[in-house]
């Protein structure tokens, strides 16, 4: 089944994605999907290929071949984006495939973190790299758990609005309940930045799990600055996580005010 690049973009590109994916992955992944569309390659086969490349990256990191490890990690991530696109285009995605993709992602991060930091420890004898490996694994886990919980909380907020509105709930009610009013009040410049990023399909969460991984496993090794880049990326990740928590807290206050107003009006 053949697809054009425009079809791949329209049907598989996310409305908003990590800037690393938008600028450095999708341009390559999209063209690989076009080529794969003319073959019988399945999403799970691509997932396995991405996993093998990820393990190859870990092996390179372990023996101190940082540049090779960085290149293989990026190729692994590109293929990791290809499998989902093929599944959506061909309609061949499965629950097992989604689970396999997620588990392989976590194993890849764990293997590469252990291999990179252990390799650096063997080369330098500095115990600090062992601690840094634990930090990388912890922050990766924290980001993905937190993302799941934040999405869950936001769904619960909307559910509370629906329940409070009852039968009178409509689009007008949805528009009047603004759960980001508090955040925009404190950061008026945010809307202009958000709109510019949206025009380029980039989400406002500029340092998420993806950017953190790429900094640790690609940028740091390519520059030969594993520890400084990892520490800087960890600090930026925590800053953006704190911003998400602050924004969620403000949304909770907006929700409470909106619910009070809806109950008073009812």
Automatic annotation (TrEMBL):
Keyword Transferase appears in the UniProt entry: yes
Coiled coil ranges: none
A molecular-function term among this protein's GO annotations: transferase activity
Cross-referenced InterPro entries: CDP-OH_P_trans, CDP-OH_PTrfase_TM_dom, CDP_ALCOHOL_P_TRANSF_CS
Pfam families: CDP-OH_P_transf
Family to which this protein belongs: Belongs to the CDP-alcohol phosphatidyltransferase class-I family.
Name of the protein in question: CDP-alcohol phosphatidyltransferase family protein
């Amino acid at each position: 089944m053949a697809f054009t690049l425009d079809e791949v973009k329209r049907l598989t590109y996310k409305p908003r994605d990590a800037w690393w994916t938008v600028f450095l992955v999708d341009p390559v992944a999209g063209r690989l999907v076009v080529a794969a569309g003319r073959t019988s390659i399945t999403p799970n086969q691509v997932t396995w290929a991405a996993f093998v490349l990820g393990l190859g990256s870990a092996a390179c990191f372990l023996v101190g071949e940082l540049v090779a490890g960085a290149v293989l990690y990026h190729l692994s991530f590109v293929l990791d984006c290809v499998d989902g696109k093929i599944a959506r285009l061909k309609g061949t995605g499965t629950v097992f495939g989604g689970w396999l993709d997620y588990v392989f992602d976590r194993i890849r991060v764990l293997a590469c973190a252990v291999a990179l930091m252990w390799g650096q420890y063997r080369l330098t004898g500095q115990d600090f790299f062992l601690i840094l490996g634990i930090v990388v694994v912890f922050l990766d886990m924290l980001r993905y758990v937190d993302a799941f919980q934040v999405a869950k909380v936001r769904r619960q907020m909307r559910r509370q609005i629906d329940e409070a509105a009852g039968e009178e709930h409509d689009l007008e009610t949805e528009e009047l309940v603004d759960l980001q009013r508090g955040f925009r009040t404190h950061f008026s410049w945010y809307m202009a930045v958000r709109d510019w990023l949206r025009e380029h399909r980039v989400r406002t969460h500029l340092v998420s799990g993806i950017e953190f991984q790429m900094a640790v496993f690609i940028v740091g090794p390519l520059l030969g600055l594993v520890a400084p880049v990892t520490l800087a990326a960890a600090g930026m990740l925590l800053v953006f996580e704190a911003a998400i928590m602050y924004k969620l807290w403000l949304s909770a206050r907006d929700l409470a005010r909106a619910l009070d107003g809806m109950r008073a009006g009812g």
